[in-house]
Design a protein that fits this description.
Strand order of the largest sheet: 5-4-7-8-9-11-10
Radius of gyration: 18 Å
Strand content: 15-25%
Number of helices: 10
Shape: globular
Distance between the termini: 39 Å
């Protein structure tokens, strides 16, 4: 039997290990303050005690990394990657999302509520092991490898194309795999849209790959992403944790969500006011 073992990076890019529904390890946070967690939990500092409490709260509230995992959820924030994807799936501009879920690995998602539920409250998923109940809830037919819960966006894209989807969104962390996705030989009638999240501590090389190949990218606590976006004056929304629209299609996706929630559309207001952003930016 495979050991139940899940590794995520969350709250200041802190490595957290969860086994059998218990937090067994909390690393050292790289970021001291995040405005999102200040707003949600009144957290003035991201220390190990708060991080452990927050992860345990997620386990209690929606069963993160357990068989009780809730996979369908309402919008968590007014404006985040999962909310943008959910809105554009509802509008018919996206057919399928290639995403990840703890206990599942890479999977195809077509239900807007699962798009939100899977991505809305989990940060960077580094590794995971299968949880049969969660795999069943998202549909085993949608899972890339239910035996291993493999994380593999390339195989996810291949499966989406094989199943006939034409407008495919892919969520991914900063890596050279973004370049592989963009260079993948897709059929002429297929479009892929790349959404990059969890960019804290991204390198100069990763920032360049992202802005040359992605459609939408979150700033998280990354100084490199902010600097690159500022240099290129990329369209964005968000005063504390900006989300950048790298391409025209990315801007359309962002604006669709903003319009739905009644907020001003994407803009190019530079320089960024970083006073209320995370700190330190890394």
């Amino acid at each position: 039997m495979v050991k139940d073992h899940h590794v995520i990076e969350a709250l200041g890019k802190t490595e957290v290990v969860i086994e059998n529904g218990e937090v067994v390890s909390v690393g050292d946070p790289l970021v001291e303050y995040c405005p999102i967690f200040d707003k949600i939990d009144n957290a003035k500092q991201l220390d190990k005690d708060f991080i452990k409490w927050n992860i345990e709260k997620r386990i209690r509230e929606f069963g993160m990394c357990t068989a009780e995992r809730v996979v369908k959820m309402p919008d968590m924030m007014s404006f985040g990657i999962s909310e943008i994807l959910k809105t554009n799936k509802e509008l018919g501009l996206i057919d399928c999302v290639v995403g990840v879920c703890e206990g599942v690995g890479t999977l195809l998602i077509t239900d807007p509520e699962i798009i939100q539920g899977v991505g809305g409250r989990v940060s960077g998923l580094i590794s995971t092991t299968p949880i049969p109940e969660v795999i069943e809830n998202v549909g085993i037919e949608n899972v890339i490898n239910p035996e291993t819960a493999e994380l593999n966006p390339i195989k996810g894209l291949e499966k989406a194309i094989e199943e006939g989807y034409k407008n495919i969104a892919i969520t991914i962390l900063p890596s050279k795999t973004i370049l592989e996705l963009r260079e993948y030989p897709i059929p002429e009638d297929v479009n892929i849209y790349i959404f990059v999240a969890h960019t804290t501590n991204a390198s100069d090389e990763e920032a360049e790959i992202i802005f040359n190949n992605a459609d939408v990218v979150t700033a998280c606590s990354s100084v490199k992403i902010r600097d690159y976006a500022e240099k290129e004056e990329v369209y964005y929304s968000g005063s504390k944790v900006p989300i950048f629209a790298v391409t025209e299609k990315g801007r359309e996706f962002l604006d669709n969500r903003l319009e739905k929630i009644g907020k001003p559309l994407t803009a190019k207001d530079y320089p960024l006011n970083r006073e209320n952003h995370s700190h330190p930016l890394i």
